[in-house]
Amino acid sequence: MAGDIGGAAGLGARPWYAVNEGLAFLLELAALGFLSWWGFGAGHEGAPRILLGVGTPLLAIVVWALFAAPRARLRPRLALVLVVKALVFGGSAAALYGVGHAVAAVAMALVTAANTAVAEIFRADPPTAGRHGLDGPGDHD
């Protein structure tokens, strides 16, 4: 789910970008976990409980793979990608709130919003060594 601008070789030259992408991946995994947690704890018994616990994160995976993944099957404009991210991450924060963790839900929403904003800034103007204070030791011009 996390972006892949520059490939693995480019990550070493841009440590903050790599950290942000790593955080994005962890947030994506957490979002799936929160959706599943909500689904299994939604108060239903039997098949509806399993359907929500498995189906909710599965739906998020399918929508993400189609529209928001770095190698998405469909290549929508940035606005639609951001809508999909808002739905998945917003849904996961709502799910976290739904299982009784309001403070964690707000934290999830804020961290994902900041992470997504930073990721889009990096994608719009990818940092390179020597720019934006990201140069390594001895890499000063």
What are the SSEs and their pairings?
Layout: H1 7-13, H2 15-40, H3 47-67, H4 78-98, H5 102-124
Helix pairs in contact: 2-3, 2-4, 2-5, 3-4, 4-5
Question: What would you note in describing this structure?
Answer:
By secondary structure, the chain is mostly helical. It contains five helices and no strands. It has helices at 7-13, 15-40, 47-67, 78-98, 102-124. The longest helix is centred in the first third of the chain and has 26 residues, at 15-40. The protein is globular. The chain crosses the membrane at residues 23-40, 46-67, 79-97. Keywords: Membrane, Transmembrane, Transmembrane helix. It comes from Streptomyces carpinensis. This is YrdB family protein. InterPro entries: DUF2568.
Can I get a quick summary?
Helix content is 70%, strand content 0%. The chain has 141 residues and is mainly alpha-helical. 21% of the residues are buried.
List keywords for this structure.
single chain; 141 residues; mainly alpha; 5 helices; 70% helix; disordered C terminus
Query: In which range does the helix fraction lie?
Result: 55-70%
Strand content: under 5%
* Terminus-to-terminus distance: 35 Å
3D shape: globular
The quaternary structure here is single chain
Tally the helices: 5
Tally the beta strands: 0
Q: Biggest β-sheet: count, sense, barrel?
A: none
- Tell me the series of helices and strands, N- to C-terminal: HHHHH
Mean pLDDT equals 83
Structural class: mainly alpha
Q: What would you report as the Rg, rounded to the nearest angstrom?
A: 17 Å
> Segments where pLDDT lies below 50 for 5+ residues?
129-141
Protein name: YrdB family protein
InterPro entries: DUF2568 (IPR021214)
Keywords: Membrane, Transmembrane, Transmembrane helix
Pfam families: DUF2568
